[in-house]
Amino acid sequence: MSSCTAKNTRVGIIGAGVIGLTSALMLVDAGYDVVIVARNLPGDETTEWASPWAGALLAPHPDTGFNQLQEYSIKKYLELLDHDPRSGVKKLNITEFYDDRGDDSTIWYKSILPDFTSIQSTDLPPGATIGFTYSGLAVDPSMFLPWIRQKLVDRGVKFVRGSVGSFQEMKNLSQASIVVNASGLGARELASDDSSISIRGQTMHVRSQGDFDRAVIRQGSQYTYVIPRASGGVILGGVSQPGNFDVDPDMALRADILKRVNNMTKGEFGWVDIDKDVSRNIVGFRPARKGGLRVEREGNIIHAYGAGGLGYVYSWGVANQVLGLVENHYKAHI
């Protein structure tokens, strides 16, 4: 589709999470007229949406599929790192541990990382079976979300605060001929998708002593991580709790998280007093989906949801696929 034609074509996006926002930016840069309708917008601090609270470590995942989308997204964040530091992208060393596999044969991304280095078994934390390090990236949502919103506003994207109960209501409200469903947890009702599920997460933000400039994550039987923030401090996490809808921090869980973090980092956060050094307790609900990510066109609805805790890792890859689906829709209707 030519940009001339595209400029007369409106796309409505439901949801202003990271996938909705990155999709909007790629669409408006391709010449489309974009309207975003969302209950929560960048700057809102509520547990009703996940994007502000994400750890947003750009570590690919070995088991979730859509590897090309993950790889595309990380390359896009690398471009932001080089061209716009205000986006909150930070370069750092990433260390990953797993306790549910005996070797790294499932780690598909080792082939795209020039400095992927295995960790000797004698240097693994207790219980871990494999480990490796590489140069990677993390995003600070408190910087990224305002940055991308301003980019969109500057390009003429319209933001409408509100909830929609159906795709038809969205079409009426936005006057869009095609709608992108980036509604996250809202997809359960909007798309009548019973496989859409909420997974509760809980983390702590601590003001770091010195400059802790690397990320460490352990997966398998547990979900533990340390992620430094470009805006300062460190995120300590976490948990993965499907079906838990408690918006209040579980104060007892904090000691467990800290214990796991110290086990994983050989006591580097032994100085933390959870009653004095935690500047914020964070609860978020990851918009996951049984069967994984959904990116597909259904008539004039494009579904883009179900990323779970990997919204930032998938975001630009999903956005690029959304753009392709929008363009294919219009080619089919020329």
From TrEMBL:
Query: Is Transport there in the keyword field?
Result: no
* A single GO BP: D-amino acid catabolic process
What is the superkingdom listed in this entry's lineage?
Answer: Eukaryota
What are the required cofactors? FAD
Gene3D superfamilies per the UniProt record, alphabetical: D-Amino Acid Oxidase, subunit A, domain 2 (3.30.9.10), NAD(P)-binding Rossmann-like Domain (3.40.50.720)
SUPFAM superfamilies per the UniProt record, alphabetical: FAD-linked reductases, C-terminal domain, Nucleotide-binding domain
Q: Which GO terms describe its cellular component?
A: cytoplasm
Q: Which residues bind D-dopa?
A: 286, 309
* Keyword field: FAD, Flavoprotein, Oxidoreductase
Where is each FAD dependent oxidoreductase domain found? 11-320
Positions contributing to FAD binding: 164
Pfam families attached to this UniProt entry: DAO (PF01266)
Give any GO molecular function from the UniProt entry: FAD binding
Which family is this sequence assigned to?
Belongs to the DAMOX/DASOX family.
> What is the recorded name of this protein?
FAD dependent oxidoreductase domain-containing protein
